[in-house]
Amino acid sequence: MTLWTSTDAVTATKGLSARAWAANGVSIDTRTIQPGDLFVALKDVRDGHDFVAAALAKGAAAALVSHIPEGVSPDAPLLIVDDVLQALENLGTFARARTRAKVVGVTGSVGKTSTKEMLRQILGGQGRTHAAEASYNNHWGVPLTLARMPTDADFAVIEIGMNHPGEIAPLARLADLDVALITIVAPAHLEAFADLAAIAHEKAAIFQGLRAGGTAIFPSDQSITPILRAAAVAAHAKAVSFGASDDADYRLTQVKLCDAATIVQASRQGTPALFKVLTPGRHFAANGLGALAVADALQLDPMIAASDLGRWQPPAGRGTREHIVLDIVEETSFDLIDDAFNANPTSLAAALEVLIAATPQDGVGRVGKGRRIAILGDMLELGPTEIALHEAVADHPGLHKIDLIHCVGPRMKSLWKKLPRGQRGEWVADARDLAHRPRSLIDAGDILLVKGSKGIKVSLIVDALRKLGQAAAKAPQGEA
Q: Ligase: is it a keyword of this entry (predicted)?
């Protein structure tokens, strides 16, 4: 299906194209580009113009450039513009204007991507749904997601993030939202913000991108909730709250964490509701309720929405639980909770709660007792109070139920020093120090959580632990 014709792209960008072309996708990376894509030569760490020839050689339909790159023929299918990033934004604006899709924007300090994926699951059951790839939530990710939106989409979900003040509002306006959801406001990116209130004001700026009559959905039970509600009122939006507080429009009444799921009882604007998600986590319960509020704002079937949410599982690195078989003959195994994509104090507390609620298996390993084990990496971008925030993890009310805690990174050393000796595992400066010897970290029957900010690379430990698993032997041909 054609996504962009040269005629539409020229109209959108006011650029020049020497020849006609048609593209069925948009790409910014020659490593993943597909034949027929429009290649966008963005300047970031590398200049995309250096890869135009390679993109065309791989079958790109055309390239969006600010000049004719060296080694590329002037009669190649090029769309020449003054500024490539601005042109990509113009493509996004044009794509948004030509579709009838209802567009949902998602932001928050914790749970943006998981909630975006919940919405993909829910909305996808009731219409053609376009959602952001991975965490494409910044100044190029949002316009790229919009530029990739099919003309026949019924719904779109746009994740919007930030690192500094003033980033969210222009991206929200670009997306031209029908519904905006804030998951939770937490102490993240404190290097760039004075306090939690400042973060709340920035997150609430997503409501500035709402269309007239749009719906603003936000948590009801945070100290900064009045800031979010005031922003919704200022945007002339329909204000909808969700959370555990008695005054929430969508209220959590009971959350039960099981080994493989979270069972939730709630009230949806006064109507009792029951739903589940296929992974444990109180934070997933809250975000799931927010996602159901979005479904109601879009006037979807509430029963189908809840049922579809019940099939959702978190993306890799964001709380996925895996069963790793160590020995297929002896049938020994351990469970791995992969939450290694990112971390801040709020998301770490939620991950620890999941580990604490999990039940290890006794009597199967060399230790004899199944253990709860955490490998915790540094939480980054927390500003001048970062050491105190790491030390405060020791005050988690259920931390004593975790048998062993290993710490990774210079900031986590402050937590390691506060742990009781019997609970204190290893401290290492570099995740690779543990990734080199994964078998020493676990035993059969254990449940192990790996959590840390992306930059500390505890995902290397996850990869090493995952490789300990043995695949079941295949039956010889002719046998069942």
A: yes
